[in-house]
Amino acid sequence: MLNAKIIIRNAEAPWVVFLHGFGGSSDTWLKQTEAYSQRYNLMLINFHHPEDEKLSLTVETFCAQIAETMAYHGVSQAHMVSISSGSLVALAFASFYPEKVRAMVLAGGMLSFNFLTTFLLTAARLLQHIVPYMMMYRFFAYIIMPKNNHKKSREIFAREAMKLGHVEFCRWVSFISLLKNNKSFIQNINSLAKEMPLLYIMGAEDHLFKHAVIKDITRLKDATVQVIPKCGHVCSIEKADIFNQISLEFFALSEDPEIS
User: Which of 25, 58, 91, 136 has the highest CB neighbour count under 10 A?
Assistant: First the structure.
């Protein structure tokens, strides 16, 4: 089971589960908790296990841990919000446990990898035992978020990544390589009898992932994309108010009239 922060509005409120990105933590959602907790109960899951050096990650077992964490806290079904590589986790989870997912928001989402993102991931795998992981993490963060208005996002993720440790960094470099092979996950989601609304929210300045999402969004039958102007990869931090408004309105529209 994974560690999670729980914020309860009331027993009858619907749930939102937050899935952070590589190197992040539940603290990367601080700009969402106040706005979301006015309507929802919140579960902010922490993915990383820096204290457990023997833990290996597979997609199936990791998604099972998310399901176990939800069950432990009495959450049978929830909306899901993810950021960056957490969007790959969200797709896999929705594929394995569609009955637990109502709708999903994928911020700074990853849907397919272009040449540059594939190169960066390969470089990380080749250099992970040679170059200090924080030097590599900061370099990759700068490549993904290079502009001055992206600085705060870079700093927040670098601060959280310092808690990882080398073993956990290497574990997640390998895990993302597994997650990016998502063809079967997409096929499973598309074959569902029920509708599962998905919204990708991308920053206009997300030069690594935005174009791939816009190009490949038709691969997911119930998915749409919305782009926030003058915003980088981590739109949930950089343009938090706009992100919160868009995502909360999306979830409200996706809910049953009786719940809304």
Answer: 91
Q: Look up the CATH number of the domain holding residue 234.
A: 3.40.50.1820
CA angle, 20 then 260 then 81, to 5°:
10
For residues 200-235, one letter each, b for 16 or more C-beta atoms within 10 angstroms of the residue's C-beta and e for the rest, the string is bbbbebbbbbbebbeeeeebbebbebebbeebbbbb
260 is a domain residue? no
Decide: helix, strand or coil at residue 110.
coil
Quick check: 54 and 10 in contact, CB under 8 A?
A: no
Q: How crowded is the C-beta side of 254, counted as CA atoms within 13 Å?
A: 24
Task: Kindly tell me the burial class for residue 166, based on how many C-beta atoms sit within 10 Å of its own C-beta (0-12, 13-18, 19 or more).
Answer: middle
**Residue 82, both tokens:** 């993810």
What proportions of the chain, in percent to the nearest 5, are helix, strand and coil?
50, 15, 35
pLDDT in tens, 144-186: 898 999 998 888 878 888 888 888 888 888 898 899 899 999 9
pTM over 0.70: yes
Is residue 189, in this structure, part of any structural domain at all? Answer: yes
C-alpha distances in Å from residue 157, one per residue of 56, 77, 203? 23, 29, 17
